[in-house]
Write a structure and sequence with these properties.
Length: 223
């Protein structure tokens, strides 16, 4: 919509108000005509349920500001939901590593589109935290590394996945098989025994708290 109004040379009818803009609009004879034309284009390009608001608006700039405020409020709400999804991210039982990572990348893209400054390293940590017990050993090793990326962790996760897939037929046949990651370990995050960092409830609670704090800052999103 921004590009359309600029292409039609109507952006001045909805642009943020400045001293120069006020002087230009007050001395321009066609300011009212531009506003009416801009209103027409806005009305033609919004959803049907929003057109009544366009019709009732006093000017193009008035309805533009209203839509911008509504969009930012909706965007903030969506950002909170996406942050919650990242905090609670878990691999589904029937999901492959490739599918799980692809889903996390989609979530990262949606977060960035909503105005979040989420990093790849942050998303990778959430991916590792959401992996089941067979991945526990490799998760502990990866979590101690800096500057995590999907390129670094994917080969190692795929290797574990192959081992897990090779173990499953033997388990069904009743053959004793070593359970990867089944040993009791001490958490590197809270230093308590019986679980690992990827499964630490305290860490998940801290990440969720950090997500809420980050989401409380309204993102600057271009309308």
């Amino acid at each position: 919509m921004v590009f359309l109004l600029k292409a039609k040379k109507l952006w001045s009818a909805v642009a943020p108000d400045t001293a120069d803009d006020r002087e230009t609009r007050s001395s321009s004879k066609d300011a009212s005509d531009k506003s009416e034309e801009a209103l027409g284009h806005i009305g033609l390009h919004v959803e049907k349920h929003l057109r009544r608001q366009v019709e009732e608006a006093g000017s193009a700039r008035e309805i533009w500001q209203k839509f911008e405020q509504d969009f930012q409020a909706l965007n903030t709400s969506r950002l909170l939901v996406l942050r919650q999804q990242l905090t609670n991210l878990q691999k589904l039982p029937a999901e492959s590593i490739a599918e799980y990572v692809s889903r996390s990348k989609d979530l990262m893209a949606n977060l960035k589109a909503a105005g979040s400054s989420v990093t790849e390293s942050e998303v990778v940590l959430s991916v590792l935290a959401g992996l089941p017990n067979p991945y526990a050993m490799v998760v502990e090793i990866l979590q101690m590394q800096d500057d995590l990326s999907f390129g670094k962790v994917m080969p190692k996760l795929l290797q574990v996945e192959q081992r897990v897939l090779s173990v499953q037929p033997a388990q069904k046949a009743g053959v004793p098989v070593h359970a990867y990651g089944a040993n009791i370990r001490r958490c590197f995050y809270c230093n308590q025994p019986g679980h690992i960092k990827a499964q630490c409830n305290k860490r998940k609670a801290d990440l969720q708290k950090q997500g809420r704090q980050a989401s409380s800052i309204r993102p600057a999103v271009a309308f």
